[in-house]
């Protein structure tokens, strides 16, 4: 939909070029739309649209390729970091971005994300954490908080029965291959603005060849949480953000470039530059 | 009448020990290494693998050679990782090889379904070992069902090429890339622990198939609309249209890409149907049987899918019986039975678990088949 701009008027807010103008499949109030928009803005600002190959997950965001005007590969459930690794290795000039939810990244895809990060793959990973399996009807995810009711933890998540929530981004941040890890939120305008900065930095880190970059975005799932959009935003701010605290978790780009892998190399081992 | 391909005639003269030619030097190589080098010379742009016996030499060859060529090699975190890296790389139009052995292939089954559905050309080598489960590391052909009837879920087919010598494995590696790209499909090369790890003199002759334009591949939406490589078609109407497209492609492959070789078939009363290592055993058995006066011949499927059913049916018309030899409890034998539709008796001889039938065992089976089908016997009078 295009609107004629009156003479003398100035556009202060428009649809990013990379965000497709169509009705999306997300539920009212869902945070995916905000994250999509931020990605479209950042890639547009950096002029990366024409060289980006993105990887869509399994889950609610499987249709990301319908909403972002980018080349997209579809990954089997959890495998986006492996698919992206293959793309990045054979197309070193491409900019590669993965988009995954918490069921995809933190449960079935744990192995793939950990090893892509450990290898320091030059990828930008977007990890949308809403603490639930949205598409399949609101089941418990690895990120579901203690006490949270879901369709598969109807009495609320109990540590002794269901185990503890998995802080994926903090876990990944300990790996030397991870150049940048941050957590944003879609709770309000200020946190959305900061999330955009994190996303931009995570893209620049790939362009600079510094290593793996991940931005977790804590988000809401009004339908899965059984709440109105407004209530879900309140919960995101007052409950979720206290458990998954937004901010930069690690930024190794401020340190001098070091060989990922820590510790001394084997005698006679090639230096990182020779890889 | 099915037309067998050019390499087949050479094979019929005994390609295991080809005459030296000016084209290439002859060297001793393991099958795993030979396939790896053949893939590199065929223009393989990326290799992704995970260690498993009896395939590890292929991964190790690639670990050394791909960086020498300045091409990507990744030892993945798992077979799931390896095959999905291949999916991503091939979705950009790169020529990609993956290899594994039976238990690893089971893990790759998920992505095989995705690649068939989203029409991503990848060549996958299965160096089969004894199963089921963790099984053994001995040679086996017990993944025939898995390879030819589908690995993952859904209606799809994947071309499967089965070499019987290391030289043929090298030629089929280049052919596999060509088939994969021509039809936009995964292609499997099915070998086993013997073909993978035994050494054989091979002629270093390589072929790089020509590149064909890939107007579907991902590379960034510069100056064109965005492309998506996907398998999801949520509306049943849409998926059915896509499936009809896939089925039409599989029908075209079945029509055009049947490959097989024959030896001593013209006067054969008894036809042995065997592929890969089993065909090597059968060849020895046929030589012995002929010395004993039994006119036996070999029909060796090279493409296991599409299966050379017409050739088998044709051979059965002139024969008294068929003997299928496999390193399995009997899998391809079902396709042979389907092909001949009960017109002649079909016997089976096989060993499992990493054991290999001896030529003597196969000769014994040929004698039983001969006796059972002799005029006046119970089988022959039916």
Structural features, described:
The complex is a heterodimer of chains A (275) and B (382). The model of chain A has no long low-confidence stretch (mean pLDDT 93). In chain A, strands 2-1-3-4-8-7-9 form a seven-stranded mixed β-sheet, with helices on both faces. A two-stranded antiparallel ribbon of chain A has the order 5-6. Chain A has one domain (32-255): Rossmann fold, CATH 3.40.50. In chain A, strand 5 (132-133) and strand 6 form a beta hairpin. Chain A has 275 residues and is an alpha/beta fold. Chain A has helices at 32-45, 64-67, 80-90, 102-108, 110-118, 159-162, 168-173, 189-207, 222-225, 229-243; strands at residues 52-56, 71-74, 95-101, 124-129, 132-133, 139-140, 178-185, 212-218, 247-251. Chain B folds into two domains: 6-216 and 230-256, Rossmann fold (3-Layer(aba) Sandwich); 261-377, 3-Layer(aba) Sandwich (Rossmann fold), CATH 3.40.50.920. Chain B has helices at 6-12, 31-41, 56-68, 79-91, 102-118, 144-149, 166-183, 193-197, 236-256, 276-291, 309-317, 332-340, 359-372, 378-381; strands spanning 26-30, 46-49, 73-75, 96-100, 123-128, 160-161, 187-192, 199-203, 228-229, 260-263, 270-273, 296-301, 303-305, 321-326, 346-350. In chain B, the strands form three sheets. Chain B has a seven-stranded mixed β-sheet, sandwiched between helices. Chain B has a five-stranded mixed β-sheet with strand order 10-12-11-14-15, with helices on both faces. A two-stranded antiparallel sheet of chain B has the order 1-8. In chain B, strand 11, helix 10 (276-291) and strand 12 form a beta-alpha-beta unit. The longest helix of chain B has 21 residues, at 236-256. The A-B interface holds A 49-53, 55-56, 62, 65, 69-76, 79, 82-87, 89-91, 94-95, 111-112, 114-115, 119 and B 45-46, 48, 72, 74, 76-78, 80-82, 84-92, 94, 96, 110-111, 114, 118, 218-223, 226-232.
């Amino acid at each position: 939909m295009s609107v004629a701009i009156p003479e003398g008027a100035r556009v202060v807010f428009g649809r990013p070029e990379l965000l497709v103008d169509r009705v999306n499949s997300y539920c009212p109030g869902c945070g995916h739309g905000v994250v999509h928009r931020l990605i479209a803005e950042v890639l547009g600002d950096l002029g990366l649209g024409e060289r980006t190959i993105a990887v869509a997950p399994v889950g609610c965001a499987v249709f990301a390729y319908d909403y972002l005007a980018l080349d997209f590969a579809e990954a089997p459930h959890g495998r986006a970091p492996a698919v992206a690794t293959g793309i990045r290795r054979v197309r070193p000039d491409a900019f590669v971005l993965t988009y995954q939810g918490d069921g995809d990244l933190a449960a079935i895809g744990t192995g793939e994300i950990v090893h892509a990060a450990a290898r320091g793959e030059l990828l930008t990973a977007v990890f949308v954490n809403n603490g639930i399996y949205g598409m399949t009807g609101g089941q418990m995810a690895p990120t579901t908080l203690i006490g949270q009711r879901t369709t598969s933890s109807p009495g609320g998540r109990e540590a002794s029965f269901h185990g503890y929530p998995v802080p994926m981004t903090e876990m990944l941040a300990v790996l030397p291959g991870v150049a940048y890890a941050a957590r944003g939120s879609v709770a309000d305008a200020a946190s959305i603005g900061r999330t955009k900065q994190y996303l931009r930095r995570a893209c620049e880190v790939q362009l600079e060849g510094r290593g793996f970059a991940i931005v977790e975005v804590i988000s809401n799932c009004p339908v899965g949480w059984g709440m109105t959009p407004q209530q879900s935003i309140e919960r995101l701010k007052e409950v979720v953000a206290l458990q998954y605290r937004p901010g930069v978790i690690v930024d190794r780009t401020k340190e001098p470039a070091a060989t990922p892998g820590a510790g001394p190399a084997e005698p006679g081992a090639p230096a990182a530059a020779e890889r | 009448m099915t037309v067998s391909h050019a390499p087949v005639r050479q094979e019929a003269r005994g390609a295991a020990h080809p005459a030296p030619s000016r084209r290439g030097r002859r060297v001793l190589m393991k099958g795993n290494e030979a396939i790896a080098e053949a893939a590199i010379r065929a223009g393989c742009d990326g290799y992704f693998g995970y260690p498993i016996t009896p395939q590890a030499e292929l991964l190790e060859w690639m670990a050394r050679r791909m960086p020498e060529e300045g091409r990507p090699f990744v030892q993945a975190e798992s077979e799931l990782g390896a095959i999905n890296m291949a999916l991503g790389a091939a979705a950009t139009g790169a020529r990609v090889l993956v290899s594994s052995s039976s238990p690893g292939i089971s893990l790759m089954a998920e992505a095989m379904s995705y690649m068939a559905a989203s029409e991503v050309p990848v060549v996958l080598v299965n160096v089969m070992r004894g199963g089921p489960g963790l099984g053994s590391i001995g040679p086996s052909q017990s993944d025939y069902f898995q390879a030819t009837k589908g690995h993952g879920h859904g209606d799809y087919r994947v071309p499967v090429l089965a070499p019987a010598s290391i030289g043929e494995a090298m030629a089929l590696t280049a052919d596999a890339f060509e088939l994969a790209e021509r039809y936009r499909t995964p292609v499997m090369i099915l070998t086993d622990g013997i073909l993978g790890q035994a050494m054989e003199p091979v002629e270093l002759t390589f072929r790089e198939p020509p590149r064909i334009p890939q107007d579907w591949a991902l590379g960034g939406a510069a100056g064109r609309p965005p492309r998506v490589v996907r398998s999801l078609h949520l509306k049943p109407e849409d998926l059915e249209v896509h499936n009809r497209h896939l089925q039409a492609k599989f029908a075209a492959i079945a029509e055009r890409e049947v490959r097989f070789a024959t030896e001593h078939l013209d006067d054969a009363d008894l036809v042995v149907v065997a592929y890969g290592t089993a065909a090597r055993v059968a060849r020895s058995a046929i030589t012995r049987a002929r010395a004993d006066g039994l006119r036996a011949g070999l029909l060796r499927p090279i493409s296991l899918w599409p299966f050379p059913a017409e050739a088998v049916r044709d051979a059965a018309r002139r024969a008294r019986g068929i003997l299928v030899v496999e390193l399995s409890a009997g899998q391809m034998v079902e396709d042979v039975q389907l092909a001949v539709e009960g017109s002649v008796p079909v016997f089976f001889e096989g060993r499992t678990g990493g054991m290999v039938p001896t030529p003597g065992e196969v000769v014994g089976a040929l004698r039983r088949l001969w006796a059972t089908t002799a005029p006046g016997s119970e089988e022959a009078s039916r």
